[in-house]
Amino acid sequence: MTSSAMTRPGQRERFSEKIGEIDWRFAILLTVIAGVGVLMLYSIAGGSFTPWAGNHLIRFSFLWFLMLCLALVDLRVWYAMSYPVYAIGLLLLLAVEVVGEIRLGARRWLDLGFMSLQPSEIMKLGLVMALARYYHNISAKDAKWSWKLLVPVGMIGVPVLLVAHQPDLGTAILLALTGLVIVFAAGLSWKVIVTGVVAVGAAIPPFVLFVLHDYQRQRILTFMNPEADPSGSGYHILQSQTAIGSGGPLGKGYMLGSQSQLNFLPEKQTDFIFATVGEELGFVGCFVVLLVYGLIIASALRIASTSHSHFGRLSSAGLTATFALYVLINGAMVMGLAPVVGVPMPLLSYGGTVMMTVMIGFGLVMSVRVHRYLELPRGRGLF
Amino acid sequence: MSEPSIFFEDVNERQGGFLRRTFLMGAATGLGLTALTARLGYLQLIETDRYRTLSAENQFNFRVVPPPRGRILDRNGVVLAGNRPSFRVLVVRDETKDLDGTLDVVAKLLPATADRRRQLLRDINGSPRFAPVPVATDLTWEEFSRVNLVGADLPGVMTDMNEVRYYPFGGAFAHVIGYVAKVSDKDIKEIREAGKSPDPILLNPGFRIGKQGVEKALDEQLRGSPGGQKVEVDARGKVVREDREGDRPAIPGKDVILTLDADIQNRALEVFGTESGAAVVMDVRNGDILCLVSAPSFDANAFVGGIPSRLYRDLSGYERRPLLDKALSGTYPPGSTFKTMTALAALEWGVNPAERVSCGGSWRFGGRSFACWKRGGHGSQNMHEAIKNSCDVYFYTMSLRIGPDKIAQVSRAFGLGEKFDIGVAGQKKGIVPDPAWKKRYFKRPDMQTWYPGETPSYGIGQGALAVNPLQLCVMVSRLANGTKALNPRLIKSIGGKDLPPGSLAPNLPYSKEHLDIVRGGMQAVANDRSGTAYRASQLGLGPVLMAGKTGTAQSRSYTAGENRKGAGKPWSQRDHAWFVAFAPYDDPRYALAVLVQHAPAGGARDAAPRAREIMRTTLLKDPEIRARIEQRMTTDAPPPPIDTGEEPDVMAPPVVDAPVQGRPE
Predict the structure, then answer these.
(1) How do residues B54-94 score in pLDDT, each as one tens digit?
(2) Which of B22, B34, B233, B234 to mutate to test the interface with A (most CBs of A within 10 A)?
(3) How far is CA B428 from CA B331, B425, B476, B508, in A?
């Protein structure tokens, strides 16, 4: 591997050189998580590749190669694509408002004929890229506190409100938090941060009382006291905790988890798959999985910190933040530390859309790694 | 991997700030992951046991296995109440997609369920939604297979075989043993009021509880305790696997053995025909009740599956009251059978049995005329003759002489007015009147006085006096036993453990000579050609003789000069007929009391022949008595009678020795 910036002109543009710059360790860590996902999906299907494990494996393999290809895409292309992707995401969100398909009581899906699309997933990428590009072009002083910050507020606020209106509170919160992480990483003034936190804290009670839908409020109440309604909405949390707790230190054994095998665990293949890990593989299994997640996040942040371009830093940090938020929110939810919001455990949970978002995002992160020496001039793009 | 170049290259404010903030982000993520790990540790390392229990409760269900109910047997091991298999169809509301549709299909297979549709819907909707509710029971094999064939694919329809209570003798034991039926809210309330918590098995639809008689009194012993079948279920409660090793077997209820004898009991019910009444037979050596019959009876089996309301209305509306246990719960004036008590009281208080009283057919006292049952009168009577002829005038005279207190004292010593501990509920105490009782019983002061005019009718077993047939049988048993104040015993053993016999009782406070005089009178009633029940009392069992006493008791007051003949009057206005007896006279073993309620003729004509038949059956069931009769018949075959004194070439003197042979105690 090259360890110096002293290279011959054009050397880094060479394909073989780029391949060598790929962070294989990172790619393997992702494979470990997806592999555990395949194992668990195989188990909860009662020892069968259908209906989940096989699909999961195929999707991951495909997306893994896609990620490697994206890693080789020039960072300037990513930079140039930022605003268009954001714009497309926004348009699709608006389209969903108008013609979206209602599934499970929420309008989230756009039927494209050949596939169903969740525009909020595109927005997760688009928002990070667009914010990174915007911050790339303003000074540190402006990023700290100036009128120019109104733009990021709008860039975050509009899609968040649209997604929240679907209603998909989980994704809306995730989008908002991701956006705020970038604003934070770009250097927002601490004074503003503290003021903001206080203000939000004060706004939460009225928000819960007047803005939330009944079912959303119910979820929060249930989270506070799941035992109050064990067979109703407290069921998910209780059953999930039971699955994890009953696993004990070493678990009940692979394919032997009664909670997941006998369907006591709801959404066992998607949002609650981590509970199956807890039940069948125990504390040791969970710890290893969380450790791998931690390593992935650490590696991704390290990639962010090595980039020479502000766009590279901010975009990879933002995508890492999205990933970390997924892990933390899902983990907390499954263990009964957070209310039930529809956030999956990335790469472990079954579900193509989220996996696609995550893997494309990591494609950008790996591209930042490959192109870490690239100096992006301000204010320039292909489009 | 580390590349020091970046720390020196392109150092500007943006990058420095970014690195610090990224470090903070990393730290925050690390903190979050640590918090998750801590939570995992709490759930999986500290609270493991709690969640393991919760998980096991999810995974395993105990399906209740109802215990087989204990059987009820007679003294010889004949089954009086047992269990028989029944094929059933059950519906689980929770598993049916559409209850009405499911019942439609069931009705197509079993047309009988269509008629009970409304009742079934009420049952099913009234039960927990996951509990199987029986919709049809006692199916034939053909019906059962039909349902199994089609219904197997029908969600929510199950078939199984369970045990149903069965009373092989139908009505003969209906009052004593009672019956089982569905558990009602009232039953649960009763158990709660008794300070116990109801067994959860009782809430199982299809479970039966004892409602009457022995079934009710010993319900807890007969019930047993339910077992559990450990099954693995999924989240929808569907059974995934059975875990044989986790099964807890049901503990069957205890068998209860009664002192009753099925043959005697059956014969007793038979001899009543359509008449109403009761018969009680006791072993005078140990107090065992061999027969406790109330007629007419009803088929206890009809109650097990839920009695149709029309049948119930018929049973409860019939004037001969088949649902009432007349042997225990009916009280009646004992009539002339009570003269035994009056006679004994008179003897105890110094009346010379040889003293003669002249009977002219009626007797005047206090401006009233008391009639003797024999219009022309009996002439001069001593005590023996008065008992034999049942002369009313003699007993009017004697009772007036000794007074009501003494009569009451003797009656109570012989068990009248007493509630015996025979293990089943429903005994009525009746009334043994005396001046103290009147004071207690009546509120109005003018009613509280005992008038001398009441005593003569008391002496012949009328007036306020009321006893139940069991008490009267105990009275005869104590007379026949001659020593012990025997207690009746109905339940011989529970689960193989014997209950104390009725002979564990104090001795009677009366002298043997006096008792012998009364018994002599009873012997004459049955065996003296002029005795009131001579014809009806001949057992035809050779040397085994019966002693008895007839009784005809007014069930109401007659108007002056009214014809007392029962025949031709409406049933409810006739007199009650009694006969009490014991046998063999020379070595008493069995005592009986027979009541024919509102009999057409009277004690000698209606009660005594029935009593004779029941007594014959009882005696012939006793192997020793049988041996005695048969020995007499074979040794007697050629003419010479035994009491001629001539000793043919027979080794043993037959009659004298026979009763002694093999006496158990």
Answers:
(1) 888 777 766 677 888 999 999 999 999 999 888 888 887 77
(2) B22
(3) 7, 9, 18, 23
Identify all chain B residues contacting A236, using CB atoms and an 8 Å cutoff. none
Residue type, B9: E
- Using an 8 Å Cβ cutoff, are A83 and A318 in contact? no
Provide the residue type at B87 as one letter.
F
Show the 3-state SS of B50-84.
Answer: HHHHHHHHHHEEEEEECCCCCCEECCCCCEEEEEE
Element (H or E) spanning B90, and its range?
A: strand B79-92
What are the residues whose beta carbons fall under 8 Å from the beta carbon of B537, sequence distance 6 or more?
A: B525, B526, B527, B531, B546, B548, B581, B608, B611, B612
Chain B nearest CA to A39, separation (Å): 21
Residues in chain A: 383
Question: Which among A356, A368, A366, A378 is positioned nearest to A23, based on CA atoms?
Answer: A366
Q: Give the C-alpha separation, B232 to B237, whole Å.
A: 9
Among candidates B19, B25, B235 on the partner chain, residue whose Cβ is nearest the Cβ of A264 = B235
Distance CA A33, CA A273 (A): 12
The one-letter amino acid at B428: K
Type of residue numbered B47 = E
With beta carbons less than 8 A apart as the criterion, state whether B381 and B357 touch: yes
| Gap from A327 CA to chain B (nearest CA, Å) | 9
Q: How far apart are CA A227 and CA B332, in angstroms?
A: 65
Given its phi and psi angles, is residue B578 left (phi above 0), alpha (psi -120 to 50 degrees) or beta? beta
* Residue the block writes with tokens 């790694």: A369
Q: Where are the beta strands (DSSP E) in B511-562?
A: 547-553
pLDDT digits (tens, 9 = 90+) for B611-650: 999 999 999 999 999 888 888 666 655 544 444 333 333 3
Q: Please tell me the distance from the alpha carbon of residue B325 to that of residue A272, in angstroms, as a whole number.
A: 67
Task: Work out the burial of residue A51: count CB atoms within 10 Å of its CB; fewer than 13 is exposed, 13-18 middle, 19 or more buried.
Answer: exposed
Segment A323-355, tens digit of pLDDT: 999 999 999 989 988 877 778 899 999 988 889
Tokens of A351: 């579900």
**B172: its two tokens:** 């003969």
Tokens of B302: 């009809």
Collapsing DSSP states into helix, strand and coil, what is residue B514? helix
Count other Cβ atoms within 10 Å, centred on residue B548.
35
In sequence order, which residues have a C-beta less than 8 Å from that of residue B27 and are 6 or more positions away? Answer: none
Residue B601 has what pLDDT? 77
Query: How confident is the prediction for chain B on average, in pLDDT?
Result: 84
CB contact under 8 A, A262 and B59: yes
Distance in angstroms (rounded) separating the CA atoms of residues A282 and A84: 45
- The alpha-carbon gap from B13 to the nearest alpha carbon of chain A, in Å, equals 7
For A288, residues 6+ apart whose C-beta sits below 8 A from its C-beta are none
- As for the ipTM of the complex, it is 0.91
- The burial of B162, by beta-carbon neighbours within 10 Å (0-12 exposed, 13-18 middle, 19 or more buried), is given as middle
Going by the DSSP 8-state scheme, the letter that residue B248 receives in this structure is B
Structural tokens at position A299: 């590696």
User: What 3-state class would DSSP assign to B443?
Assistant: coil
Residue B653 has phi, psi (to 5 degrees) of: -70, 115
- Percent pLDDT > 90 in chain B is 36
Contact (CB<8Å) B18/A263 = no
Q: How many CB atoms lie within 10 A of CB B454?
A: 18
Q: How far apart are CA B59 and CA B51, in angstroms?
A: 12
> Which tokens hold the place of B128?
């927990």
Mutate which: B44, B54, B129, vs A, most A CBs within 10 A = B44
Q: Sort out which chain A residues have CB atoms less than 8 A from B54's CB and list them.
A: 238, 242, 245-246
Cα B102 from chain centre = 41
* Helix H or strand E segment including B540: none
